[in-house]
Design goal:
homodimer, 546 residues, alpha/beta, TIM Barrel, H-NS DNA Binding Protein, Double Stranded RNA Binding Domain, 3 domains, eight-stranded parallel beta barrel, 16 strands, 38% helix, amino-acid biosynthesis (chains A, B)
């Protein structure tokens, strides 16, 4: 069995940042993690330095069982975090050892188990259809078995706050059953999410005083207060806080890990992450949104792209004089940045800054800066997005600086034919006609399992003989967004489409963008930029037009 | 001058719900209200029953000046709310009567003025470049003039919490200058948004005790706690709360009106809106998102479409028994509704509940429940997503119950040709071959600005002669997601594509789903479901196969 305590934070085991993105977060409408996604999420969370990663419910969900199996087989090496399996107590009228669900928790080989138990008498009687005594026995038996097998156990006391209000004795008896049997933390859950901070403070303080148990907190966001409730619980004595990345979770979601951690570190001065980790909050938040395939919340506390954005007006001029008067903290501390929206000067300044970041010196090219700024503004207004497509932006900048065309071919035409035949088989075929750098004309046809795949294959067939480096380049990700640019614009299949294409080669990976009303043409534009960038990186600039 | 007190709530003037969507909310990145928009927003807010509507800053913003002029000219009749103009105190070294900005406040004819004043000594000295005495004189003079002219005045004490912590005496002197001169409410503003609930409670309690003034609260959301901070301030004695619709505002935004009101009414039992108004929260939130041209936040407290959506199989079975155990309140009370999400996590109970929600009775069809549950799990594992595609799910259920095929045609084949010609023009052409319900074969060809648009047009051309109701149906939204479903599956343009298609007809709107490695085929599958559902809704089930 691996270690059961988090590593690397100054507070060690005395304070737990417990992430449940992979279990409770996955309940969010619209999230459907693959096992590969789950492993990737866990790696990001571990790199950030959370103490515990709840990976899922082995036995109940096949994907979760596989996740734990692959983690145990060595696919997941955790530097800071400890892996946790979630499960419920044994069923009524059965021993814990006989319960297949409890067996699955042990089989998962997770060194820590979070055990969910009912602590509201109404739920015990009406949902579980048993009595308080048997419920407590179920808790105690299951904790005992897990402890005997060497697991560390946290108790998730479901519906605790509602239950405590309705019948405090029952709620406390459930905690006691678990803690006496060897659980380490009694996690008070606001499962229905109806609490407010002062109520949380009162109950946490009272339960701590009455029991002396180590307490944790788990809040849902149904009153829009999950972050505040969690932080308040910590101020009232909880030393274990359960959160999810970006607040993902059922209904309105859970407490957002990044806001909770941001508040604990910067407002309460609690070093709950390893040194230097705070600066990774923004990057981690966006990476996890990407894996969940959910657009990042631009107005999210600490990590949103608008979180430190000031609109022209009352504050704008004063910020120039004294930025610290107008931000609650330095955005750089959480890996974010201040933005002023959006003057021509700010535009030029950010273009220059971005060029420096990309290794280009635009300082001596004022006309190029103007041209790039203008083009970016025009294209962004039409739906392009360069903030996620550095490679396309770099090509634009190089072109404005007078560098010659980098695409190793000129397009004459392409044609894609998609057929759904009478036999139900769907075929995609693409033909491209291009003129190569040496003046030769090439025609190539290829099939693919979709129009863009076929186009990519045909283009490669046409170019590979003269561009052998192309075999090193592959498309690694492809994203499509449908945009409705104006209010009165019609939606539907005639909307504008934005394609982001990620390519990987020996020089790493790069992202390009294309926008068009036709999804295939938008993909083509991104594909051409991807190859131009590949040409630049894989064998230096091409001198097609010189 | 019109009345200065809100009308219609049981609490009357003793508690103020003060909305600043049109002033502070408009600072949100991406919002740009026209004057017509502002009038529409004010009408929605008044209909909901807020006490005060801050319309903008006349004199400083031309649109705001026009808004107040048109309101005064009779374009805005308010039943519940009082209109408020926002502005700042006179400048240093000038009388209030001479100050054009103060003049503009009077010219606006708004019966109430919110006056913003610095209450943090650092801001007084470093941003305003004056001293505390002159700052207090500016406040007192301006309040006096406004009172002499018959206006009611609220003081927005900017940066109050930071200022009070840094130098409490200065902060209190500013409040005193305003209140002694005749202001009604001293609004404590957490302008930089760095506060947490317990800190808010402490300061509000202390200031109330030291001054006896009527206090208000204005919170920004930089710690993710604006709603909780606002409600906590009310619990600590504030009787005036400033919010914005959907939490719109600069940076991370302001306290969300709907969450604050939802909490005050349902958690603290304070009747802060007129009778019956609570049930309008959801509708109002969505209408105001529409005007702001911002997609509604699906996970927003109380009003989000996911706010009462349950996914987990664990909960779904219990919800069937006793819904009130799994919601913090009855969603109907705020004009929202409970939804059960059918996903791979779903068990039979979720499928049955969902069927009831869709108006189908699966209770007597155990085999159909099994078949639907199995199909949903299989398809979701392959990338389908039914939780957002009720129409596809309903078709699946009807089919499992033995209802005949609803599609009013059988597909023979389709072909799509996309050409990017030598002239750079991109053309999409689709041909469909279908057999109609009466056995006739139809071929139709159409162009579109993309492959799906062309297919949709060709299919309509083939079907409209026999399905005239089709002219009432249009595609209203189209979403594409690229999925990587399996462990070793490659990414790139050969990944699986999921299409969600929203259609609108006389029967409302409905969403269907299609999944395939080919984006066009995936779209086709969603399109066929959309038409099948339309056939069902627009003219009842078809008996093609019977």
């Amino acid at each position: 069995m691996s270690r059961t305590e988090p590593a690397g934070t100054p507070l060690g085991d005395t304070f737990h940042v417990f992430d449940t993105t992979l279990r409770d977060g996955a309940q969010r409408e619209g999230i459907s993690y693959s096992v590969a996604d789950k492993l990737a999420v866990a790696r990001h969370l571990d790199a950030l330095g959370v103490g515990f990663i709840e990976g899922g419910w082995p036995g109940a969900m096949p994907k979760d069982t596989e996740f734990f199996a692959r983690a145990a087989a060595g696919e997941l090496e955790l530097r800071h975090a400890v892996l946790v399996a979630f499960g419920s107590t044994r069923r009524a009228g059965r021993t814990a050892a006989e319960d297949p669900q409890v067996r699955a928790l042990l089989d998962s080989q997770a060194p820590v188990v979070t055990l969910v138990a009912k602590s509201d008498r109404r739920h015990i009687e009406r949902a579980l259809r048993t009595d308080v005594a048997e419920n407590c026995a179920m808790v105690a038996d299951t904790v005992s078995l897990l402890r005997t097998e060497g697991r560390r156990v946290f108790l998730d006391a479901e519906h605790f706050f509602d239950g405590y209000k309705f019948d405090p004795d029952t709620a406390l008896r459930v905690l006691e059953a678990a803690m006496t049997a060897g659980a380490d933390v009694a996690v008070l859950c606001d499962t229905n999410g109806g609490m407010l901070p002062l109520g949380i403070a009162e109950v946490v303080t009272e339960v701590a005083a009455r029991t002396g148990f180590r307490l944790g907190i788990h809040c849902q966001d149904d009153t829009g207060s999950a972050v505040a409730n969690s932080v308040t619980a910590v101020q009232a004595g909880a030393t274990h806080v359960q959160c999810t990345a970006n607040g993902y979770g059922e209904r309105t979601g859970n407490a957002d890990l990044f806001a909770v951690v941001g508040n604990l570190v910067t407002k309460l001065g609690m070093p709950v992450l390893p040194d230097g980790a705070l600066g990774e909050l923004t990057r981690t938040s966006h990476a996890l949104a990407e894996i969940a395939n959910i657009a990042p919340d631009t107005h999210q506390a600490y990590v949103g792209t608008s979180a430190f954005a000031h609109k022209a007006g009352l504050h704008a001029s004063a910020i120039k004089v004294d930025p610290e008067l107008y931000n609650h903290m330095d955005p750089v501390d959480v890996g974010n940045g201040q933005r002023v929206l959006v003057t021509e000067m700010a535009g030029r300044a950010s273009v220059e800054l971005k060029a420096t970041e990309l290794g280009l010196d635009l300082a001596g090219h004022p006309d190029a800066v103007s041209a790039v700024t203008r083009t970016v503004k025009e294209r962004e207004a039409a739906g392009w997005s360069f903030e996620a497509a550095d490679a396309s932006l770099e090509l634009l900048m190089r072109s404005a600086m007078g560098e010659v065309e980098q695409v190793p071919f000129a397009l004459e035409s392409y044609r894609v034919i998609l057929e759904h035949g009478t036999d139900g088989v769907v075929v995609s075929e693409a033909t491209v006609r291009v003129v190569l750098a040496d003046g030769r004309r090439q025609i190539a046809t290829a099939e693919g399992n979709g129009p863009v795949n076929a186009l990519d294959a045909a283009l490669r067939a046409a170019l590979t003989p003269t561009c052998p480096w192309l075999s090193e380049v592959e498309l690694s990700d492809y994203k499509v967004r449908i945009l409705t640019t104006g209010r009165s614009e019609s939606f539907g299949t005639d909307a504008v489409t934005r394609v982001l294409l990620e390519s990987t080669g020996t020089a790493g990976s790069w992202t390009t963008v294309g926008v068009h009303s036709n999804v295939v043409e938008a993909s083509w534009l991104a594909l051409v930029d991807a190859l131009a960038y590949a040409a630049l990186r894989e064998r230096g600039p091409v001198t097609l037009n010189s």
